[in-house]
Protein: RNA helicase
Amino acid sequence: MRTSWADLAANSAADNANNSVPPSKPAYVPPHLRNRPPLSAESHAPPPPAYSGPSSASASVAGAVSGRWSSPRNEYRTQPVSSGHTSGWGNNSGGWDRGRDREVNPFAEQDDSEPTFTEQENTGINFDAYEDIPVETTGENVPSPVNTFAEIDLGEALNENIRRCKYVRPTPVQRNAIPISLAGRDLMACAQTGSGKTAAFCFPIISGIMRGQPVQRQPRGVRTVFPLALVLSPTRELSMQIHEEARKFSYQTGVRVVVAYGGAPINQQLRDLERGVDILVATPGRLVDLLERARVSLQMIRYLALDEADRMLDMGFEPQIRKIVQQMDMPPPGVRQTMLFSATFPREIQRLASDFLSNYIFLAVGRVGSSTDLIDQRVEYVQESDKRSHLMDLLHAQRANGVQGKQALTLVFVETKKGADALEHWLCLNGFPATTIHGDRTQQEREFALKSFKSGNTPILVATDVAARGLDIPHVAHVVNFDLPNDIDDYVHRIGRTGRAGKKGLATAFFNDNNVNLARALADLMQEANQEVPAWILGYAARSSFCGGRNRRSGGGSRFGSRDFRREGSFSRGGSSDYHNAGNNGGGYGSCGGYAGGYGSSGVTSAWD
Ligand SMILES: Nc1ncnc2c1ncn2[C@@H]1O[C@H](COP(=O)(O)OP(=O)(O)OP(=O)(O)O)[C@@H](O)[C@H]1O
Structure:
C-alpha cells in the first residue's frame, strides 16, 4: 500500500515534469513522502520513506502499533470514500513559506519582542521533581510504560524534533500515555499542570499519521478538507499554543498542522486549510462554523484529542462537543482513537466523557485533580476593600527580589472582565506596567497582551479564567488569586500557570468571607500538596457546607481518593468490569457531593472561543 502511494507520488511528479505544465494545485503528497527532494523526470524510483519502521529495541510498543493498523480502524481508512486532502504543500502560512515551497523552521523563528530572560533560565527543567509521583492505570491490557524516548518507536523525524525541543526524557505522563496511545487504545489521562500533556497526545498522533497509510486524493474543485486528527481546546490562545507546539514536533515529518479559532478572520484560516491539513487544532465554536459551511469534514478523523477535556465537557461546551463528535460525520468510538487529557477530572465529567470513548484506559499521574507541590501555595485573609493595597505590597516585595531589578512575571486572576480592566488601570497608575486578557478584548488585543507579558515587557497580566487553563508561559513566578474562583478545579488550573516543567512557583490567594464554600477543598488541596495550611482556614473549612455550594468536589472524606469513576460501585454503563490495576491504589470516593454546578466562569464561554 505504501509502495503504491510512493509510486503514485513519484509518477505524479514525473508526469508534471514531463508535461512541463504546473498543476493548478499541487498534487497531494502523503506525509511520509513530503519534504523529500523533488524527483527528476528520469527518476521513477520512490523516495525513501521518512519513517523506516520499528526498531528491534522497541518491539513491544512497535508490535502493538502494527497491530493497531490491522484493526477495524484500518478497514475504515481504506474505505472508498471520496475524500482526502484538498491540496498539496508548501504554498504558505501556518508554518509554510508562501511561494517558496518550503516549511518554515519553527525552531528558528524569533519572537520579535525582546526576551527578558536568558536561554539558560529557560532550560532549567527538573523532571526529577516528578519521579516519585504515583501512577495509576485502570483498564484492560494496559501497555507497559517506557523510561526513555529511545524505547518508543516514534520515527526518526519526530525523534529529531524531540531533540530540538531539548526533551531529554519523557515526563511521567508521557512515559505512560504514549505507549497506550501508540497501541491504539483510547485514553482518559489526568496529570498535573505543566507536566507535559501536550506532547503526550501530539507525539502519538504525529507518529501515527506518519506511519499510517495515506488517504485518497481529494477530487479537484472540492473545497472541503478532511483532516486526519482533530485537537480541540477551550480557548483561542491555548489552541494557538498547541498549534505552535505541534508544528515543532511535526517539523519535517510531512505532517501538516493548521489552527482555527474564533475572533480571527475566517478567510485566512480557510486558505490555510485549503493548503492541506493533517492535524486540525481548533476551538469548538469556530470548528462548528467550518463544519456548517462544509469547509471541513470529520469523515477521515483517526485521532480525536480533547485538551482540558473536563472543561470541554462541562456545561458550557458540552453541547458543541456533542455536536462535533456525535452529530457530524466523525467516525464513532472504536473506529477513531480518542484521547482526553486534563489535570482535573471530576467524576461526573468522567461519566459524560465515557460516551466518547471505547474500552479506554484511565491514567492518573499523581492524584486526580491535585496541584503540583512545586508550587508554594499561600492563602491570606484579605477583605475586599484591602485587596488592592495588599496586591501592591506583594508587587513591591517582588520587585525588590526581582531578577536584575526587573519585575518577575505575575499573573493576577480576577472574577470579572470589568474588574480586570479596572485593576489593570489602577496598577498602571501606580507605576506597575500591567496588561489584561479577557473575553471583552479583541483577539488582537488578547494576543498582544499575552505576547507583551511573555516577553517581560509588561510583567503583570490581569486575567479572567480565559487564561486559567493550559497556557505555558515560562517564568511566571507568581500567580495571585485576587478573586478566588468558585471551583477548586479552576484554582488548580490557575495556580498551574506557575511551577511548570519541574520549576518552582508561588501562588497567593486572597481569601475572605465570600470564599467560605471553597475553604474545605482548598485546605484539602493544600494539605495534599504538603503545604502549610493556616489554622484559620481550617476553621472556615469546618464551618463550610461539605456538600453544598458550587464546588463539585466538596464532599465528605478525602476527595483525593477519586480515581477512575468506573471503579465506583455505581458505574453501570458500557466498558468492562475487569479493570486491571497497574499502579498505586488510593482510597474510595467521598460519600457525598459530586458535580453540583457548572464552572463559575460559564458565562464567558462564548467569549473564549
Ligand atoms: N519531556 C520533556 N522534557 C522537557 N520539557 C518538557 C517535556 N515535555 C514537556 N516539556 C515542557 O514542559 C512544559 C509544560 O508542558 P505542557 O504545556 O504540555 O504541560 P501540560 O501538562 O499540558 O500543562 P497544563 O495542565 O497546564 O495544560 C512545556 O514548556 C513543555 O515544552
